[in-house]
Design goal:
CATH class: Mainly Beta
Low-confidence stretches: 1-24
Largest sheet: 5 strands, antiparallel
Number of helices: 0
Distance between the termini: 44 Å
Strand order of the largest sheet: 1-24-23-22-21
CATH topology: Neuraminidase
Strand content: 35-45%
Radius of gyration: 19 Å
Order of helices and strands: EEEEEEEEEEEEEEEEEEEEEEEEEEE
Mean pLDDT: 92
Shape: globular
CATH superfamily: TolB, C-terminal domain
């Protein structure tokens, strides 16, 4: 279903109608949602998603409570048209007993290698032809909370929290930017990999839950956009910073504010609009933002339904056929309703603004 703000209603785009016709008998309506794929259990809790050619890739599980499950994290490969599961890539090198382990988000370089964030391993990359896994960074550092006795490096958070690398994006030069949701930090990894370096920190990125989260470079490559899911006051934000070597606190600009919803993953469409996944039950779905930051559309659940079709979605990617593919993370319900670990197909009549895809050493 789609819910528009009256101030930005576009007459040319109709409201979503009841799904009475059989599949394929009519053109999809804007905001129409269907289930494309199931994410296998017992892993579940899908997070990252990336599309390349006729395949898409989903990473997981992105959840706490994995220390005793004995199961390594995975990346799943699907057919982009049918949603059929084609291959499962098991993450190597994790400690699966006695330590939390999770895959979060994904991206590609210009050579077609897939980069995966893992809270134990740091960043690793996969050669999808050979399935060989290679370390790209060491684990992201755990920083002390900044205080009177804590000099740099430290995190501008009220308490000490571990690193939680969440989303990642390349710039054209091959630098990799990574959001750290618990340490109010954005890291930069130099082209070719190696130790992550602090690129930006600010207490406005801190959170009692999940802070800085989804992250993308603007289509003109001049700025980096990112979400803060819930700040210390319980408000969600989309911010941007200039894509410069050392941005300052004064450079931080708010693009959009959410008093409810919990913004998570983001992606730019070729239309210039920014698609923002809203992850919190009661408001979950997709928020579509115009280039000026105003909301063009809100695509959510019908009526009072809290958990279908959107159940705490996490991230999105475009399939090249007008659809946004959205991972249903189902963080609050997945243990009881594991069939909600899904990839949804949402018709938005848009395609991806091309991501930076550098040739990385």
């Amino acid at each position: 279903m789609i819910h528009r703000l009256a101030a930005v209603l576009v007459p040319a785009v109709a409201a979503v109608l009841a799904l009475a016709a059989s599949p394929g008998s009519r053109a999809a309506e804007y905001g129409e949602v269907s289930v494309l794929a199931q994410v296998p259990i017992p892993n579940g809790f899908p997070e990252g998603i990336a599309v390349r050619g006729d395949r898409f890739y989903v990473a997981g599980p992105a959840t706490l409570g994995t220390a005793l499950n004995g199961r390594p994290s995975r990346v799943f490969e699907y057919d982009v048209s049918s949603g059929a599961l084609l291959r499962t890539l098991v993450t190597e090198g994790e400690t699966v007993f006695g330590a939390e382990h999770a895959n979060s988000c994904l991206t590609f370089d210009g050579g077609g290698r897939l980069y995966v964030l893992n809270n134990q391993l740091g960043t690793f990359r996969l050669d999808l032809q050979t399935a060989v896994q290679q370390a790209y960074t060491p684990p992201y550092p755990n920083l002390r909370a900044c205080g009177i006795l804590s000099g740099p490096p430290c995190s501008p958070t009220p308490v000490n929290l571990p690193a939680l690398p969440n989303d990642l994006a390349f710039d054209d030069a091959g630098n990799l930017y990574v959001s750290d949701s618990l340490q109010a930090t954005i890291w930069r990894v130099p082209a070719g990999g190696g130790a992550p370096q602090v690129w930006f920190q600010d207490s406005r990125l801190a959170s009692p839950y999940v802070g800085v989260n989804g992250l993308r470079i603007s289509p003109d490559r001049s700025r980096i956009y990112f979400t803060v899911t819930v700040d210390l006051l319980g408000i969600g934000h989309v911010y941007s910073l200039p894509l410069v070597p050392s941005p300052q606190r004064a450079d931080l600009v708010e693009f959009h504010r959410y008093y409810a919803g919990g913004p998570d993953g983001i992606a730019f469409g070729a239309s210039g609009r920014l698609y923002v996944v809203l992850a919190l039950p009661g408001s979950n779905g997709l928020s579509v933002l115009n280039p000026d930051g105003s909301e063009f559309a809100r695509i959510g659940n019908p009526g009072l339904n809290l958990f279908a079709p959107f159940d705490s979605p996490a991230n999105l990617a475009f399939d090249g056929a007008g659809n946004a593919l959205v991972t249903n993370h189902a963080f609050a319900t997945g243990l009881l309703l594991p069939n909600h670990f899904q990839v949804l197909k949402v018709f938005v009549d848009d395609v991806a603004s091309p991501l930076a895809a550098p040739i990385v050493p």
